[in-house]
From TrEMBL:
GO terms for molecular function: triose-phosphate isomerase activity. Pathway: Carbohydrate degradation; glycolysis; D-glyceraldehyde 3-phosphate from glycerone phosphate: step 1/1; Carbohydrate biosynthesis; gluconeogenesis. Keywords: Cytoplasm, Gluconeogenesis, Glycolysis, Isomerase. This is Triosephosphate isomerase. It is found in: Cytoplasm. InterPro entries: Aldolase_TIM, TIM_sf, TrioseP_Isoase_bac/euk, Triosephosphate_isomerase, Triosephosphate_isomerase_AS. Homodimer. The gene is tpiA. The lineage of its organism: Bacteria, Bacillati, Actinomycetota, Actinomycetes, Micrococcales. It holds the Pfam family TIM. Belongs to the triosephosphate isomerase family. It comes from Cellulomonas fimi (strain ATCC 484 / DSM 20113 / JCM 1341 / CCUG 24087 / LMG 16345 / NBRC 15513 / NCIMB 8980 / NCTC 7547 / NRS-133). It comes from the Bacteria. GO terms for biological process: gluconeogenesis; glyceraldehyde-3-phosphate biosynthetic process; glycerol catabolic process; glycolytic process. Its EC number is 5.3.1.1.
C-alpha cells in the first residue's frame, strides 16, 4: 500500500486581496511554526485568487515557507487570443504546485463542460502542475441514489487520454455540491463511500498501484471540529477547505487534525 501524504488545501475562492493574502499566509505560517507542524506528515496548500499569486510566491520564497500554493483555475491553452484566461505556463513560472480543475462553481457559473475540464487537466500536466480535479453530485442526484454513478462519470470524462504515470500524481477532490458553503457536511461514511468508489474506478481504468497512489480529498463545510472524523476514513487523504481556510488559525487547526485527535 502506498503511503499517501495527507493534503489540506485551502481554497480562498474570490476572497482576500493581495495585501490580505500576505497577512493571512504569514499568520498561517506562524501558527503552524509555533505548533512545530511537520509538513512531510501533512502537506498544507493555499489556493488564492490569481491576483495574489505573485505576493504569495514572494513571501514563500523570502521566508522559505514549506506551505505550497495553487491556482483556482487555468486555461486549456498555453498562449494566444484568449482574453481573461490564465496560461498554465504563467502559473508554473509563479511557482504554483496545484491547479483546481472543474470546481463545482466553475461548472455551475461558467458552464464548464466535461470536455473543457479534460482539456484543462491535460493542460495542467503539460505545464508540470498537479491538477486537483473536483467532482461531486447535486442534492437531487444524491436523493435519486445516483450520486456514485454521476461522480464516477465525471471522473471518467476528466481522465480521458491520461497515462497511468500522470494519474498517479493527480489529486481528486470529492465535493458533494449540497455540502459546499452550506454548513451541511457529508457524513464520514458518505465521504468514505465515494472515495472508495473513486479509487475502485481508478483501479479499473488503470491499475491497483495507480489507484493506491492517488490522493482523494473531501470538500464541503470542513472545519476543525469535523475534520478528524472525516480523516479517520481509510480512503480520505485530505480536505479541500473553502470558508474555514480564510481564518488562518482555524485552517492551521484543520492541518493539525492529528494533533487534535490525540489532544496535543
Ligand atoms: O473548494 C472548497 C469547497 O468548495 C468547500 O467550500 P466550503 O468549505 O466553504 O464548504
Amino acid at each position: 500500500m502506498a503511503q499517501r501524504t495527507p493534503l489540506m488545501a485551502g481554497n480562498w475562492k474570490m476572497n482576500l486581496d493581495h495585501h490580505q493574502a500576505t497577512h493571512t499566509l504569514q499568520k498561517l505560517a506562524w501558527t503552524l511554526k509555533d505548533a512545530k507542524h511537520d509538513y512531510a506528515a501533512v502537506e498544507v496548500a493555499v489556493i488564492p485568487p490569481f491576483t495574489d499569486l505573485r505576493s504569495v510566491q514572494t513571501l514563500v520564497d523570502a521566508d522559505k515557507l514549506e506551505i505550497v500554493y495553487g491556482a483556482q483555475d487555468l486555461s486549456a491553452h498555453e498562449s494566444g487570443a484568449y482574453t481573461g484566461e490564465i496560461s498554465p505556463l504563467f502559473l508554473a513560472k509563479l511557482g504554483v504546485t496545484y491547479a483546481l480543475v472543474g470546481h463545482s462553481e466553475r461548472r455551475e457559473y461558467h458552464a464548464e463542460s466535461d470536455e473543457l475540464i479534460n482539456a484543462k487537466v491535460h493542460s495542467a500536466f503539460k505545464a508540470g502542475l498537479v491538477p486537483i480535479l473536483c467532482i461531486g453530485e447535486l442534492l437531487e442526484t444524491r436523493k435519486a441514489g445516483e450520486h456514485v454513478a454521476h461522480t464516477l462519470a465525471q471522473l471518467d470524462a476528466a481522465l480521458q487520454g491520461l497515462t497511468a504515470e500522470q494519474v498517479r500524481t493527480l489529486v481528486v477532490a470529492y465535493e458533494p455540491v449540497w455540502a459546499i458553503g452550506t454548513g451541511e457536511t457529508a457524513t464520514p461514511e458518505d465521504a468514505q463511500e465515494m472515495s472508495a468508489a473513486i479509487r475502485g474506478r481508478l483501479a479499473e481504468l488503470y491499475d491497483a498501484e495507480t489507484a493506491d497512489a492517488v490522493r482523494v480529498l473531501y470538500g464541503g463545510s470542513v472545519k476543525s471540529s469535523n475534520v478528524a472524523s472525516i480523516m479517520a476514513k481509510p480512503d480520505v487523504d485530505g480536505a479541500l477547505v473553502g470558508g474555514a481556510s480564510l481564518d488562518p488559525e482555524e485552517f492551521a487547526k484543520i492541518a493539525r487534525f492529528q494533533a487534535h485527535e490525540v489532544g496535543l
